[in-house]
Amino acid sequence: EEGATYENGYVSPPMCCPSRSSLLTGLYVHNHHVFTNNDNCSSPFWIDNHEKRTFATYLQQSGYKTAYFGKYLNKYDGHHIPPGWDEWNGLLKNSQFYNYTLNYNGIKKFHGFDYAKDYLPDIITNKSLQFISETVRSVDSPFLAVLSYPAPHGPEDSAPQYQDLFFNVTTHHTPAYDFAPNPDKQWILRNSEKMLPIHRSFTDLLMTKRLQTLQSVDSGVERIVNKLKKLGQLDNTYIFYTSDHGYHLGQFGLVKGKAFPFDFDTKVPFIVRGPGIAHRSVRTQPVVNIDLAPTFLDIAGLEKPPHMDGKSILPTLRNPNKKFRNSFMIERGKMTFERYAMVSKNSVIKDDNLLLLKKKKLTKQERLELECRKPKYQPPCSLSQTWICREKGDGTKKISRCHAKFKNGVSRNTKNKINNCHCQPGEIFGWKYAKLDPGEKKMQKKFLKQSLKLENLKKLKPKFLKTLPTTLSRRGRSTEDSSLAEIMMDDMANDEIKEVDLLVEDIAEEIRDLSILKNSTEATGCKMSANNIVCDASVIENESEWLSSRSTIKQQIIQLRSQLKELKQIRKYL
Q1: Upstream peptide bond of 152 is cis (omega within 30 degrees of 0)
Q2: How large is the average pLDDT for residues 486-497?
Q3: Residue 16 annotated among the catalytic residues of the structure
Q4: Catalytic: which of 16, 41, 389, 402?
């Protein structure tokens, strides 16, 4: 009511640590390299290269008194105080309301489960009020305070006085709520079905709990405003209210979470009040979390450092019709080379190659050196192998095509026999090689998945029955021939794409199997109603029926656990 609301406030990466890193530095993910909540989050690389260049360091150097209260970065371990902060009350690790540790200006203190002494949102508010009072009264300098509340993040522990509010609220039932499946959208939405009643009930309950936790934030904001007003600083202070990402609760049938490139995950509240801002005004310009750092510097009269990607929104606060931007980037995370090496056990990733892998641009020979470390390009040529790497006299690698003349004892004439009938003397009927029917291939693949563990299946790399590998008649040439090198690189890229396609097929099959299993619960004689489990009278009265139902459910649990394990294995390769 006392400021401006930006209707189009967004985050570039809809995930905690990457988003907070962007907020602090004004950089897109591809520039600060914090890709996920694990990869590079508060890492030595972040500390050495980016933590020293947040908006706090520039403001502190210009004479501002700075303070940080609450959640910092998901992997922050409390072993140091980030540069740029005069007052530091940083939460170790991820969001908590109770049972957590804070770093108080270099001293770690554990908080337990006593609401009066330990509830984190109240501690953030109280410590901030104390900082503001002491700074205004004793120091003749401007100040900046960051209040980083955990709410409404999980575990959604609300203060006791708010635990009876917001029951039966359904504001999260947007037009996209439980709108599934979606055959015209990306694969995961094509395979997401409508939620079960228990899922819908869960989203309603979670919405209630999230709203309850936010009451402590609302109370904190009100107390901060009243304190500034009492100290005579309200009309001289800018207050920004936003979040590090959005959240979905049932949209497109996705029960809960974030990290999707849709508005419900990327759009955030973005509200500002301060000197010269018209009350109850609205801005339509798209603003992003990377704009906060340059905006804070602009308010302080500082130039934006050239490395920052964001832009100051101050001109739009002064002029509601100011042209600002017509596009921005939404980025997803990715694995670091170290993480990829760990989950894939890829021999390409070795200590002596990490520097090469981290280069922004590789020469053709450098790309070849990396590719030639992969097992699938090692000699001797196998039946399915197209390329082979060898070492030249100077130690560099060269790659050439596998000769069709001889692959593990298979002669070139094999290709000519593919279309010939294999008949006994005097017979006109026999057998010949034929392309495997897609249905037959799927059936064979399903048999292998049921008979082998996933990790063994991937090691086996099965060749399906009634199929022959393609053979090449061209003689091998080294990559000194530029055109051959380009062909080789294209083939390698296509191989990678095919591998990803197979993974997506595996996931789609798992999801279909889960759907079949979900619909088979009727065989147990029991089903879930809105709030409890209802069983047929035969199950309740007949011991053998009861034992049979119990056994069926047990087998379904075993199957679900097996499928979950497979999905986790598949996820490692994505």
Answers
A1: yes
A2: 65
A3: yes
A4: 16
